[in-house]
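Tokens for chain A. Residues wanted.
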């Protein structure tokens, strides 16, 4: 019993340190800046400008808005946009393509904290766009080509409400910072639980069994046995848990920055049990196309993964 209590306390200290001293400052600054860009209409303007180009890949203007929210805000950022697409009669093919794109790309709440440990943020953003648009096109033109929906007129992406626009710059930055704090505080339980899971697996020897089963496949693409745990954790518990476990292992010197960048193409995305469940609940019509989006996202994730293996050789 004493050993369990010690594991809980050690996990709690590691999780709180990670949240307060790494994630909190990064997320507060990023959310404040994104809130300001949103309030000033820059995000909506950018989405409307790019819409004619991304529509070729099956992604409407609202889809670009969802992309930006994911890349620069958090995993939960695109949910409101997907709900709006569900309610305003957007074609299910557009919804499926947008969702596939989102699930194949990297979420800010995992990538920005990992950037402090050597994750190449520029490469992550570029491969996210390539993988995301590939997933969208694959879903739109192949997987959902038989979905017959009446195309409704595409709505122009709008910025913040008039109330938000009336606020001063400092008020907007303050609101964004508070949202960043809420995200970090909401992630703390998952961080602590993820680190606790890692410690339990180590103590019980379960990680050795998992490593024996998966490490041969990872060795083929040049990933060491130490990457088994974060990858397994990611697809079961989500990106936040993956980030927590990865940072803990990097602090112990078990994973290098190059190894982090090599596995990032496969692991920094919302395509996991938690992510699929959350996105499927965004609306009835979103739930109807979730399987197509998952298949498309897998295609985009594989493209991203291969790109990272090529860009970051062993």
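Reply:
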């Amino acid at each position: 019993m004493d050993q369990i209590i010690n594991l809980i306390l050690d996990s709690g200290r590691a999780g709180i340190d990670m949240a307060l001293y790494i994630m909190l400052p990064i997320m507060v600054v990023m959310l404040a800046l994104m809130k300001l860009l949103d309030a000033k209409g820059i995000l909506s303007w950018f989405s409307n400008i790019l819409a004619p180009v991304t529509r070729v890949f099956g992604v409407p203007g609202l889809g670009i808005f969802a992309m930006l929210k994911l890349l620069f805000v958090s995993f939960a950022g695109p949910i409101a946009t997907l709900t709006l697409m569900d309610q305003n009669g957007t074609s299910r093919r557009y919804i499926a393509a947008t969702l596939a794109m989102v699930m194949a790309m990297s979420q800010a709440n995992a990538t920005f904290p990992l950037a402090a440990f050597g994750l190449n943020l520029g490469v992550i953003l570029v491969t996210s766009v390539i993988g995301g648009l590939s997933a969208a096109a694959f879903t739109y033109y192949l997987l959902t080509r038989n979905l017959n929906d009446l195309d409704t007129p595409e709505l122009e992406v709008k910025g913040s409400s008039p109330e938000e626009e009336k606020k001063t710059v400092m008020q907007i930055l303050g609101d964004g910072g508070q949202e960043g704090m809420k995200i970090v505080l909401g992630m703390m339980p998952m961080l602590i639980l993820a680190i606790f899971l890692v410690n339990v697996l180590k103590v019980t020897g379960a990680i050795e069994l998992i490593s024996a089963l998966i490490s041969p496949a990872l060795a083929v693409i040049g990933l060491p046995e130490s990457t088994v745990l974060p990858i397994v954790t990611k697809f079961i518990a989500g990106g936040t848990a993956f980030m927590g476990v990865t940072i803990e292992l990097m602090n112990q010197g078990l994973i290098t920055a190059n190894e982090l960048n090599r596995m990032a193409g496969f692991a920094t995305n919302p395509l996991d049990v938690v992510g699929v469940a959350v996105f499927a609940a965004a609306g009835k019509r979103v739930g109807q196309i979730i399987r197509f989006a998952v298949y498309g996202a897998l295609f985009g994730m594989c493209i991203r993964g291969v790109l990272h293996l090529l860009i970051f050789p062993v």
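Residues 265 and 305 are 4 Å apart (CA to CA). The chain has one domain: 2-311.
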